[in-house]
Amino acid sequence: MSILFYKKPKYVPQLDGPLNLGSCQKFAERTKDCGAPIPPELSFERIISNKALPPCSLQDFLDYLAYVTHDAENLQFYLWLVDYHRRFRNAPREERSLSPKWNFNNPPSSPGCSGRSSPAFGCSDKTLSVLGIKDFEALEEADISTASTVDDFTSQYTATIGTLKFTELPVPDTLHSESTRQNANSYQPFRSEVNRIVAHYISPGAPRQLNLSYKDRAAVLHAARRTTHPSAFGPIKKILNLTLRNQSHPNFIRWSICNGNMPWTMFLRTFAVCNIAIGFLIAIFLTLSRASRWYRLFAALEWWFGITTLIAALQGLCVLLLHRRTRELRPWEVEDNRPRFGVDAEEAALRHSKILYEETKSRWPVKMELFGPANMSPEETWMDTYRLKPLFQKTFEREVPTQEEGLHLIQNKIAWQAEAWAFIVTVVLTVFFTALPKGNLY
Rounded to an integer, what distance in angstroms lies between the CA atom of residue 378 and that of residue 225? Predict the structure, then answer.
């Protein structure tokens, strides 16, 4: 009976407005009643540690956030923060001592991080004032509900990603203006990198601005100006962990179950309805004729096939592709050599300098540029290519193998459910039409 009433993970809708710790906890509450549990093979830990296979790999997760939900900056910042914590922890002790741990309820007061005259990453006191925070000393003493004491970034959900090997190349000092270098706390480890991260993800108007509340944003900006310790990003760490784990991850698994694009899915639904209609026409035609009532059993084949296809297609699954263990290529996967991002002002400036831009990029286990323009760049060529592609080619797209067995487990349950319900409905319809007397009209 569990197969008949099996449900794939429910969709967890996004919350309106900026994210904070209180609102993100609602994701965890909604995930508890998310329909069928996600198999261990597709757990958040396996995907974030890049152990799952396509189409549920870390790269697929990043593409989903970039092109479907348009919030890839959450995962990009999360991966950087995991890597940054590891590199900060492995830094020499004397360097780490220059960046003390930040406690948002009781900020440290040390000569190395107490100066207010260091507007690093181009975010001055005036900029923070725009956020409604004018008294920074009062901010240190305020009770920020969404930013409790930050512990080391070694909890169980980050311990699972120890197999990832990130190597952040050092950012040359020449990337920053002379005034920024003079004002920044350059003696702190990774100060140049933290400045760029804040400028790209946290500062107001950043290219990949995280959807944070003004209070959390101001608190992190203030902390990052004082120290480069990973605890300065504590509120963001908690918010992104709750969001990615309890909202983005279940929705990604739900989306990955669909092995066909939307044009193919709509074609399947239309094809299924036509098969069901043909079954009714056969049954009605034979019932009104003088033919033996047993000929009406031929309608059962059309009913069963049509109902099975329709139920599966309503959940985005193509039974034919499932049996072939394949899926259609996503629109952004068709062009293998597409540029993932356009050329931003920083890259354009570096092309005229003595520094090779390739040497300033991070090396990640996914195709990701940590610094750059917004994730949905209008210069990505696949958008225009797909928009101009004929409907026939969109419908019958190229296929690639589906490698993740955990995904097959969910897809098979949906297919079995569709076949079971189709069998029940087909038996009822067949018994009904077979029991009718002959019409003897022709």
Answer: 33
- 133: nearest Cα among 199, 24, 206, 223: 223
Q: Taking the complete model, does pTM exceed 0.85, yes or no?
A: no
Distance from C-alpha of 239 to C-alpha of 206, rounded to nearest angstrom: 18
For 39-83, what is each residue's pLDDT tens digit?
A: 899 999 999 999 999 999 999 999 999 999 999 999 999 999 999
What number of other Cβ atoms are within 10 A of residue 277's Cβ?
Answer: 12
From residue 154, give the alpha-carbon distance in Å to each of 85, 125, 157, 237: 9, 32, 8, 12
Which residues make Cβ contacts (< 8 Å) with residue 226, sequence separation at least 6?
A: 102, 107, 113, 114, 185, 232
Q: Which residue type is seen at 104?
A: F
The highest-confidence range among 21-30, 152-161, 231-240, by mean pLDDT, is: 231-240
Contacting residues for 333 by C-beta, under 8 A, at least 6 apart: 63, 400
C-beta of residue 237 within 8 angstroms of C-beta of residue 46: no
Q: What is the DSSP string of 217-277?
A: HHHHHHHHHH--SGGGGHHHHHHHHHHIIIIIHHHHHHHHT--S-HHHHHHHHHHHHHHHH
Q: Are 321 and 259 in contact (CB under 8 A)?
A: yes
Task: Compare 159 and 408 and report the one with higher pLDDT.
Answer: 408
Q: Which residues contact 79 (CB under 8 A, 6 or more apart)?
A: 164, 166, 364, 366, 368
